[in-house]
């Protein structure tokens, strides 16, 4: 078990995440990220009748090879016929992808981060009307010598239920461009960086990409590189692609 204190319930993660707000000076600007995708997303706990919550991420991002900076647009949607009520979105980074700031959101303290993650922010979405969406500008860095993943859970304000979770889903490329100004990365692709001084591909990061889902409020476990947040597998209610 890691020495890091493991958050025991999903609710405490959300509650603790609002203890501080940190704003970083950051110059990354989102390029044309193309279409958004819910790839790697699954429904977890049943949402209220008429509420259908999902998230999307850009299908491609671009990482500056010198500064390692990138920009990501994270969007939460209510595709149902009824208002969502107050909800929260978490934006959490794993491995080579580090979330530096999410506009209007509060940084999750290091001691309250899920096991295996390196950074995270909690965003108060409040009520999301039927058919509406809300987007957040995510400022991040990506160490291209590693794999990198991001996770977007959508929870009640208390954190006792998780209606939807996208990821941890990877961004990456199988064709690194070390001499180019920037490296394009694709959603749902494991990053395969070339090892220094050779053609052998480095094997870094997690061996599994998708987070198994368990009952809301189940204990977070120290799963190391696997990045598991919940300890019991449960039936998937819906999967978007």
UniProtKB/TrEMBL annotation:
<feature type="signal peptide">
    <location>
        <begin position="1"/>
        <end position="30"/>
    </location>
</feature>
<protein>
    <recommendedName>
        <fullName>LPXTG cell wall anchor domain-containing protein</fullName>
    </recommendedName>
</protein>
<keyword id="KW-0732">Signal</keyword>
């Amino acid at each position: 078990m890691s020495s890091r204190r493991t958050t025991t319930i999903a609710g405490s993660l959300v509650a603790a995440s609002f203890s501080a707000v940190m704003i970083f000076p950051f110059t990354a600007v989102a390029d044309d990220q193309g279409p958004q995708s819910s790839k790697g997303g699954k429904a977890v706990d049943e949402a209220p009748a008429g509420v259908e919550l999902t998230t999307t991420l850009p299908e491609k991002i671009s990482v500056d090879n010198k500064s390692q900076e990138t920009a990501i647009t994270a969007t939460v949607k209510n595709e149902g016929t009824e208002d969502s009520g107050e909800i929260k979105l978490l934006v959490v980074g794993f491995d080579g992808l580090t979330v530096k700031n999410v506009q209007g959101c509060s940084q999750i303290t290091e001691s309250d981060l899920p096991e295996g993650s390196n950074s995270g922010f909690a965003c108060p979405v409040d009520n999301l009307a039927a058919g509406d969406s809300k987007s957040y500008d995510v400022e991040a860095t990506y160490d291209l010598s590693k794999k990198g993943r991001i996770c977007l859970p959508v929870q009640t304000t208390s954190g006792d239920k998780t209606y939807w979770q996208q990821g941890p889903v990877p961004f990456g490329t199988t064709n690194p461009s070390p001499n180019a100004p920037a490296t394009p990365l694709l959603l749902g692709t494991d990053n395969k960086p070339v090892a220094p001084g050779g053609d052998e591909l480095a094997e870094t990061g997690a061996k599994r990409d998708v987070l198994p889902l368990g009952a809301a409020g189940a204990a977070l476990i120290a799963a190391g590189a696997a990045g598991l947040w919940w300890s019991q597998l449960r039936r998937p209610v819906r999967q978007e692609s």
